[in-house]
Amino acid sequence: DLVISLSRGSVSNTEMSRGLWTREEILSVSNKFKCKMNEQHPNTGRPSLSAESTALQSPSDHDLRVACYCEENAWRVAYRHLYTDASNSCSGNNKDWKYYIVFVSNNHKACPMFMQRAIPKDDPREYVCWDYHVIVMRSAVQNNIERTIVSEILDVDTWVTPYPTPLSKYLDESFPHATDPNLNKQYLPLFNVVRAEDFIKDFYSDRMHMFKNGEWNSPPPEYPPIMNGLKMDGNDSQERNELTGSNLDSYISMSGEGKCVFTLAEMYERSTDSNKKELTECS
Predict the structure, then answer these.
(1) pLDDT digit string (tens) for 196-210?
(2) CA distance 220 to 7
(3) Is the pTM above the cut of 0.85?
(4) What pLDDT score was predicted for residue 104?
(5) One of 61, 155, 172, 206 is an active-site residue; which one?
(6) Which of the residues 133, 157, 172, 206 is marked catalytic?
(7) Which residue in the list 61, 70, 81, 157 is annotated as catalytic?
(8) Known catalytic membership, residue 90
(9) What is the distance, to the nearest Å, from the Cα of residue 246 to the centroid of all Cα atoms in its chain?
(10) Above 70 in pLDDT, residue 55?
(11) How far apart are CA 70 and CA 157, in angstroms?
């Protein structure tokens, strides 16, 4: 089952089984949800915001970007594509896309990436060494006869174009140093791939990893933290922004039972026209 948490003051914690709900029914609920966006919160008098409402209301993926909150950027980009018509308008086709959240890191949590918006676009020699980065990946059957799969990256934090970006092109431009024979291999990226529906349902973070010494390392998003995955012990009336805790580290970690973790070479293999495996097929 997929849990869609609608904005406070409307319907909440509506459970939808994707096997029972059609895309048209989900979009119908989403359209009703959009009307709630401009309602005022009864306590603050300000518009009621949520990760879901901002994703549904956004005119584009890039308008969802909040610097240094890549996990929430990816959460909302995936949500926007799953529950609006964004996937077709973005790509100009009607492919039946499957969406994934990809955590990029390594066992040292030191992963160089080029062409990131955190650095100037006009200096291709510069890179960011992230402890982790999070992107959206989508795949679809390109040829119904041969059943080959095409994969694209949706990363609102990159300068790489076009958007969405073919997987191989994104890897080429984000990790050009990978072919350097003098590179310490421990700094090569690893990729933890999670189904987007599962991530939307299970992820939660109070953002405290960004709050140090009494101040934010980077200004947080204006909407309350995403706490959908945290069990509320049956207290459905508790506000999400009053909850604390995070399972972010469990996604950043590249080890653990049941995870689909790929090396850079294995990701390249998945980008070829002959690829016939889903991204969460680990073998």
Answers:
(1) 999 999 999 999 999
(2) 19
(3) no
(4) 98
(5) 155
(6) 133
(7) 70
(8) no
(9) 16
(10) yes
(11) 8
